[in-house]
Amino acid sequence: MSDPSIFSANSRIFTPASPIEAENLLRPIFDRSEDADAQEVREAVREILYDVRTKGDAGVLKWASSLDGFSGDEKAFAIDPERLPVAWNSLPGNVREAFQEAKKRICDYHVSALSLLHDHLPSPGKAGFRLTPLERVGIYVPGGTAAYPSTVLMTALVAKVAGVKNIVGVTPARNGEVPPSILAAFHLSGVTEVIGIGGVQAIGALAFGTESVMRVDKIVGPGNRFVAEAKRQVFGLVDIDMIAGPTEVVIIADETANPRWVAADLLAQAEHDTRSSAILLTDSLVLAKETAREMDEMLGSLPRSAIATESISRYGYLMVVGGMDEALRLSDRIAPEHLELHVVQPMTLVPRLAHAGAIFIGESSAEVFGDYMYGPSHVLPTSGSARFSSPVSVETFMKRTSLIRGFGSPEEQESMVRMTALLARLEGLEGHARSALQRACLNDKETI
């Protein structure tokens, strides 16, 4: 691990001579999900999931005890619902006030999003669709190097707005204890079923069901690489929101940007995890150097400086590019989870950007506001998956059913019968053709 006392962010300033060189320098970012440990992680996850699937609670207990120091039997998995309001009342008043404001903003945003979604009822000859909330959802809340009550709000509240009736929270109980802030967040979100287990064994319990844990329809929430791999392996048996990788931020900045703000925002991301990435793309070498100086100064007093330093030394970049066009191109190539725009006219860049989980427009819109307060869920696509996937939202907790209703006229029905039978026979499916022909006054052997 890099030594914070001798590390300098200046070592992470890069001035690529060409777009190809820039992409080659960023190769460690693109390859993070397939490092030397990836196969070992897959095999370890497979073993734990097998135990949970075949042994139920006994399998969960085995791994919760060995990995998380869980003590007790399977009867101790469930957190007593009465502990949730106690945890809420134990929080300082100003913390409760901040939680309540966050809840208001999250609910307001997603209620507004829900208002744009409507069933489309069918009419004769015209198909429609229906949107239905999922019945039972599992919310995974990580508990590794830090506690994340914000993740509870950013997932459980969204599920509630979407209309999910049964929500179960899972989070690791370290030595039998779940942080009060997490229990308080579940209480504020209206979730009363909380299971004090985490890791791969929790994902397995939600996906397969055990004697004491009822299986769910979908698992939502971030976690470490083992949790992400577990979600990958159970997908299909249950739905998942996404396969989340390490968190990441890209900041596009010009010479007018405040280097202290840029440095603070980069370190805010880097302190999450040693595999987090924090990238500045700028056309100003002066800004890159000033940002590096500010980062060095801030690292000295950052409580999680060891984590942030390791992250920056491996996956941090202060990259000076030839202009804003190149910065935009590289950002879309990365497809970051978070994208900040520290430029004179940030709104002019938004239409030119195709791939990002969330875009923070203007230097006052720090990514950390999105983590806690702004409203949209902070559970976002990572590792380039913003090219094809979306943040957690009310749609995450709903499913669409197609509705098909008859025909508008006898002539339309006759035409549909003939063409359906024709295409079915083209594919060699005579039974399909005959099913269609039953709806017309034709001999099912008739030549179409």
From TrEMBL:
Its cofactor is Zn(2+). Keywords: Metal-binding, NAD, Oxidoreductase, Zinc. CDD domains: Histidinol_dh. Binds 1 zinc ion per subunit. It comes from the Bacteria. NAD(+) binds at Y140, Q201, N224. One of its GO terms (cellular component) is cytosol. Substrate binds at T247, Q269, H272, H338, D371, E427, H432. The keyword Zinc applies. InterPro entries: Ald_DH/histidinol_DH (IPR016161), Histidinol_DH_CS (IPR001692), Histidinol_DH_monofunct (IPR022695), Hstdl_DH (IPR012131). Coiled coil: none annotated. The active site is at E337 (proton acceptor), H338 (proton acceptor). GO terms for molecular function: histidinol dehydrogenase activity; metal ion binding; NAD binding. Zn(2+) binds at Q269, H272, D371, H432. GO terms for biological process: L-histidine biosynthetic process. Belongs to the histidinol dehydrogenase family. NCBIfam families: hisD. This is Putative histidinol dehydrogenase. It comes from Leptospirillum ferrooxidans (strain C2-3).
